[in-house]
Amino acid sequence: MVRRRLPASSCQLCKGEDSNDMVQCDRCDLWYHFGCVGVTGDIAQVEWICDKCKFAVWKYSLLKRRNKENHFRKKKQRRKPVSIQSLSSVSSKQRKILALRKLEEVKKRERDLRRKFSILEGLVDHLDNDKLPS
What we know:
Elements: E1 22-24, E2 31-33, H1 34-37, H2 51-77, H3 92-131
């Protein structure tokens, strides 16, 4: 969006004076001189996102991809669960210990998933808040 003399919206990079040759980020609504961000007046007809917002989107997608990769990597590394019923030669005390370990593993996985979900939810909220007009 090309700007036409809006007060108190100086360039976020150089903090210089306002001019008619400025562009507004369609995501964070901050203003930049054409020369500071390397665009021309043709940008008025196209959606434009500043480098700060591009970085935030890139970082979010990178975290999402890493979490997915880590999930699959950990999944491959996990041992096959031991079936408690197939351990006929194991004492009942040992079976209970194995059952407790298995329960602890399940609880740990659940905590990790909740933590990851919370992080992703926070990122999504942060990105959604950046989209809202101020």
